Amino acid sequence: MKKFKEISLGSWGRRAHYEFFMENFQFPHTTITAPMDVTNLVGFCKEKKLTLFNTTVFIISKCVNEIPEFRQRLRPETVLEWEKVHPSYTIMGNDHRFLFCDVEFSDDLHTFHERSVETARKLKEGSFQDDFNKDDNRIFLSCLPWISFTQMSHPIHSARLDATPRISWGKVTQQGERYSMPLNMQAHHALVDGYHLGLAFEGFQKNIEAL
Description:
seven-stranded mixed beta sheet, Chloramphenicol Acetyltransferase, single chain
């Protein structure tokens, strides 16, 4: 069952900001990249024998679901807020071409990790049946493990109405006993401000430290 609520624009405290970005910009998206301390994440994955990739997907999905603005999506005349959003991400296929992988999010790390591993296995075998919904209750994720980038941008379906957040992370580098990784987030400015992006980056770090 699809679970979302429609936001009443008439009483919405953000209406003026929403209208400002919707009416005045061809590309109303904002993006930011920052280095994150992933020392605890790397150690946790080694200790628990979990993949760094799937655990990172889990942490990003968890912190995004904790912020209502990252679960809001645009319609031509209104705004929806999903109860939960799920990760849709790219994985490397056997021929070095990427594959799209949709996985239902679970608040339990081990459940989500097992689900992600199994979905990726079926997808690479070519037997995967894409029966997961294609609504916009998703976040788009990708990893560039070869590059310790400092900024990036993402393709957009429709610049005005496409409000699905894009989040990417890059190469993990070691400096002494600490590990660092770049994290990039792109969001629609009609819904998300720098404050909310700050919450997401802080949430990512806090969820890592809470492992």
